[in-house]
Design brief:
The complex is a heterodimer of chains A (406) and B (439).
Chain A (H helix, E strand, L loop, with lengths): L27 H5 L13 H4 L11 E6 L2 E9 L6 E2 L4 E2 L2 E7 L6 E8 L3 E5 L12 E18 L2 E20 L2 E2 L5 E21 L5 E7 L2 E12 L12 E9 L2 E8 L5 E10 L6 E6 L9 E4 L5 E13 L2 E10 L17 E13 L2 E18 L6 E18 L1
Chain B lengths: L1 H17 L20 E5 L1 H4 L8 H5 L2 H9 L22 E7 L5 E6 L5 E7 L3 E6 L29 H4 L13 H5 L6 E5 L3 H8 L10 H16 L4 E5 L8 H4 L3 H11 L7 E7 L2 E6 L5 E2 L11 E4 L2 E4 L13 E2 L1 H24 L3 E3 L1 H11 L1 E3 L2 E3 L18 H19 L15 E2 L1
Parallel strand pairs in B: 1-6, 6-7, 7-14
Antiparallel strand pairs in B: 2-3, 4-5, 8-9, 10-13, 11-12, 15-16
Helix pairs in contact in B: 4-13, 7-11, 8-11
Classes of the chains: A mainly beta (406), B alpha/beta (439).
Chain lengths: 406, 439
């Protein structure tokens, strides 16, 4: 019949993922104090917060903690009274720190294993934005050996090397109906790796105030993995599957400055300010091994902006065995309004934290924390998907850690 | 221990917060200055939910008025009955489905012929055969009748000439005398949508300018004034839509002159082009070489090109000589395109001015669909365009819409209503509707 008609599917199964997906859960004591820690000395988590402070730690540490978090997001499409919510899945950021040096030595060695970036969002396969995302599970694990040196009693420096191992798992609907009217499905899963470093300086001033400065470098992470596309058989040829992909995700560098104040022997007050250089996240690209008119290399502008956080927290030690902590902070969004996506619905956020530390035995401490984070409601229209509406998110993060010190 | 005690309270408090999901304050649906308690829809095949070359139950279920009515129910809208085919005759008039693709990528369409609602056929003297469908006897709010023109709304015998209209009427053809305008206004209503007028241009265009005539713009204006005047006479409010540029639909833009010529030249490089019988002026036609401005209909059997045709000069290849041009019914030539477009523009000028005179909301389908053709459209992560099958909006007949296309149009109607009447009818979720079904 119409033998001169060629069909080219011009749909849009682009994979967009994004955002201020930094997870700031790197130590239960520090979480309790509003994520501060650049300018104070608490425990082995200084490996992360300020490698320069590690040599100043009075003891050696082995500690591990976990902060299971629930990310509850809601979406209200523009001009609609419908709402869609993420499933209550639990992500598990964790930390491990070891700090060791000879007693009264001028140096200490540290090792940190922690999960600074990630995201777990599951919107399901029947919501309005299913063609932008059904679910994303992104994990990064940073391994950081660190060396810190005390130059004087008042000044120490340190630096670490970072190896990042990352995992990604992403599901997205493809807008091609099969004979039963059901969508196609795309599934990307893979692993990534990247390298970076960090460094810091720590001062003890004569007045007793402590000051820290740290820099964590960007970590450009290269992913590769498998891409599976399942669509109606008659158009499966447009979606070569199984397929493989490569992708590069630039994780941002962070500059931090912090101070610790000690108004009385019972109190520690900490203030941190951070600049997260999300502006490196200009583009996200996916390259597929087998290409077609539909599955092709995509370069997706993200146009992220620098983000800032201001954090403050306090610790009160009323009796020797018990510490109570509280804090909070404010963080600005990295994603501009037209690049917010359901992967991580970025927005300005406020958070409040509380914590308790208890000395179980002479060398053993248990620390618990709780954080409530609220991403302010944000109206957005994504430049790619035109998914338009308002996101609002609450995050609940209990956490616990054990530390052995000697 | 005092502090530990204090901490228990904090823990308890935090656990309570854990139960709290974020809660966005969604805008409250309101009806504004309009009353949606009985909404009726007036129109042709697009209003009936016609798709894939037929009217069938699944298409009816996704008609744009039914989507609009469902959304209206959040702001006081009433029940919306459609003249649905029953489930054992769900395939209604029959329709086309996609069976697959050739190696070269051409779609292979097959007709669905089971579970039809055809009850017979009558011959109408001077008109032809009319297929009759199983009668529908319940209440009706969706008055969409495939094939109807604005020209025909006052024509009393029309109920005997259109099987889709005949099935809604109490009498069997050829005994109907109820004009469409009287039929739709027989019961009181508070709100209406009107999207008539497409067939006043489309029927001429799809027949290649050979099998039908364009409605005279003055007649169109008189009838539109009569229709809107009658609909608003008792205070009902409503929304009207303009007529799309019928020459922009995939039906006319999929099989192109360029593609046909390129295909023929592969076999025979000496061929210059294909000949068509083109309108010169008035009713004078003359053969000439086709250009990119001449539109070939989607249903043109391109395999006919080059097959021998008997002529006074002996057998000559079809379409390749001035003596054997492509039949007029397959081509809307450049002059016919211009005529069609001018008529549509005149119709739309009438539709908009009559709507303004009566204070009605307007969905400018002409502008909307032309923008889709020119720029494409992205909705919730899906890219649409006006391409055949691949574009996602148009169904397999290249004229009517997919359920997803009807949902997009429904939201356009809703936006127009909300803007005019200060109502806040929520839009529907376009991603919940299927597109073309691929085997």
């Amino acid at each position: 019949m119409k033998k001169y008609l060629l069909l080219v599917l011009a749909l849009m199964p682009v994979l967009v993922f994004a955002q201020g997906f930094q997870v700031n859960l790197e130590g239960e004591k520090q979480i309790g104090m509003g994520h501060t820690g650049t300018g104070t000395l608490q425990d082995g988590a200084s490996v992360f917060f300020n490698p320069g402070a590690v040599a100043m730690l009075p003891e050696n540490y082995v500690q591990a903690g976990i902060s299971p978090l629930v990310f509850m997001s809601e979406f209200n499409p523009s001009n609609s009274n419908a709402t869609f919510r993420t499933a209550n899945k639990i992500a598990t950021p964790f930390t491990f720190y070891g700090v060791w040096g000879p007693k009264n030595s001028f140096w200490k060695f540290g090792l940190g294993i922690y999960t600074p970036f990630g995201g777990l969002t599951d919107w399901g396969d029947s919501w309005q934005g299913k063609y932008a995302l059904e679910s994303l599970d992104l994990k990064t694990i940073f391994f950081q050996p660190t060396l810190s040196v005390k130059l004087t009693d008042y000044l120490s420096i340190g630096a670490g090397f970072v190896y990042n191992h990352a995992d990604i798992d992403l599901h997205q609907a493809i807008p091609i109906s099969n004979s039963a009217g059901a969508d196609g499905q795309g599934h990307l899963s893979g692993t990534g790796k990247g390298y970076g470093w960090n460094a810091g300086i720590f001062f003890k001033t004569l007045s007793g105030v402590t000051i820290g400065l740290s820099h964590r470098s960007g970590v450009s992470t290269s992913f590769n993995g498998n891409a599976m596309f399942s669509v109606a058989p008659s158009v499966q040829g447009n979606f070569p599957s199984p397929n493989t992909f490569t992708s590069k995700v630039p994780l941002p560098s962070t500059n931090s400055v912090g101070i610790g104040l000690y108004p009385s022997p019972n109190w520690t007050i900490a203030i941190d300010a951070n600049e997260v250089n999300w502006d490196v996240f200009k583009n996200l690209s996916f390259t597929y091994a087998q290409k077609s008119s539909t599955i092709n290399t995509t370069v997706l502008p993200q146009n992220y902006e620098q983000a800032y956080t201001l954090r403050a927290g306090a610790e009160y030690r009323g009796c020797p065995k018990l510490a109570l902590r509280f804090g909070g902070g404010y963080a600005t969004a990295a994603a501009p309004a037209d690049f917010v996506s359901p992967q991580v619905p970025d927005a300005n956020r406020v958070y409040f934290t509380g914590g308790i530390g208890y000395k179980i035995a002479s060398h053993l401490n248990v620390d618990a924390s709780f954080e409530f984070e609220h991403l302010l409601a944000r109206q957005t229209t994504n430049a790619y998907t035109q998914l338009s509406g308002t996101y609002e998110t609450n995050v609940y993060i209990p956490g616990i850690s054990l530390s052995y010190h000697w | 221990m005092k502090f530990l005690k204090q901490h228990y309270y904090i823990i308890a408090g935090l656990l309570l917060i854990t139960a709290c999901k974020p809660d966005i304050k969604t805008p409250k649906p309101t009806n504004g200055a309009a009353d949606f308690s009985r909404y009726i829809s007036i129109g042709n095949s697009l209003t009936a939910g016609y798709a894939d070359g037929g009217l069938y139950l699944a298409g009816q279920m996704n008609s744009y008025p039914s989507i609009v009515a469902k959304q209206m129910q959040t702001v006081g809208g009433g029940v919306f009955n459609q003249p649905l085919f029953n489930s054992d005759q769900a395939n209604g008039s029959g329709y086309l489905q996609l069976a697959g693709f050739s190696a070269a990528g051409s779609p292979n369409l097959t007709p669905v012929t089971s579970n039809l609602a055809v009850r017979g056929q009558i011959a109408v003297p001077g008109f032809g055969n009319v297929t009759l469908y199983t009668k529908y006897t319940g209440d009706i709010e969706n008055y969409g009748v495939p094939g109807i023109k604005l020209l025909q709304i006052t024509y009393a015998p029309y109920g005997n000439l259109n099987g889709f209209y005949e099935r809604l009427l109490p009498q069997d053809a050829p005994n109907n005398t109820m004009p469409y305008l009287a039929f739709i206004t027989a019961k009181p209503f508070t709100f209406f949508s009107n999207w008539l007028g497409n067939n006043d241009a489309l029927a001429y265009a799809t027949s290649g300018g050979a099998g039908d005539v364009l409605t005279d713009p003055n007649t169109f204006a008189a009838l539109d004034n009569l229709l809107i005047g009658t609909l608003t006479a008792k205070g009902a409010k409503g929304v009207v839509a303009t007529v799309p540029d019928v020459t922009s639909i995939p039906y006319f833009n999929t099989v192109t002159v360029g593609a046909i010529v390129a295909g023929v030249q592969q076999a025979n490089p000496s061929v210059k082009g294909i000949y068509i019988n083109a309108l010169v002026s008035g009713t004078t036609y003359a053969p000439r070489l086709a250009t990119a401005s001449d539109l070939i209909v989607l249903t043109f059997p391109t395999s006919k090109i080059g097959t021998p045709v008997t002529t006074p000069f002996g057998p000559l290849p079809y379409g390749l000589t001035p003596y054997t041009p492509v039949d007029n019914q397959y081509v809307l030539d450049e002059n016919e395109v211009a005529l069609t477009r001018n008529h549509v523009i005149a119709f739309n000028s009438t539709i908009k001015s009559v709507a303004a005179a009566h204070g009605l909301a307007v969905f400018d389908a002409y502008t909307f669909l032309n923008n889709v053709k020119q720029y494409g459209l992205v909705v919730d992560g899906v890219g649409f365009n006006s391409g055949y099958i691949s574009g996602g909006i148009f169904s397999l007949d290249g004229v009517h819409l997919t359920p997803r296309g009807y949902a997009i149009v429904a939201n356009q109607f809703i936006d127009a209503i909300n803007a005019k009447y200060g109502s806040n009818i929520p839009e529907t979720n376009v991603a919940a509707y299927p597109g073309v079904k691929f085997p």
